[in-house]
Fold:
Amino acid sequence: MSVAAPISAAQSIGEYLQSPDDLLKIGAFRKKLEKEKASIDARLKNGVKEQLDATREGLRKLLNTRNNVQVIKDEMATVDTECSDPQNVVPTFDQISRVSIVFLIFTVKYETV
Structure:
């Protein structure tokens, strides 16, 4: 089993330019390499753009999620406050409280007398 070693740029050019007549092909070879480079650059640019778009979308979703969690947290705090305050649970709480105080006062007076 043979593993091919990576070819360096100098080796690649050396293989392409083996005779003095090949020097005339340098212009075409350069254009070929420039096209390949442009193609690679375009693919890289497109890949970077896709990654940035995906990152922006992810950050946008995280921000929306954070806002949603904050809204839920605020609503849960409101529910907790309303459930823990008996005045919100019993509509006649003030009247019951006053009657209870009056009853307590009568009980104390009755025991005193």
The chain has one domain: 10-112. The chain has a mean pLDDT of 84. The radius of gyration is 41 Å.
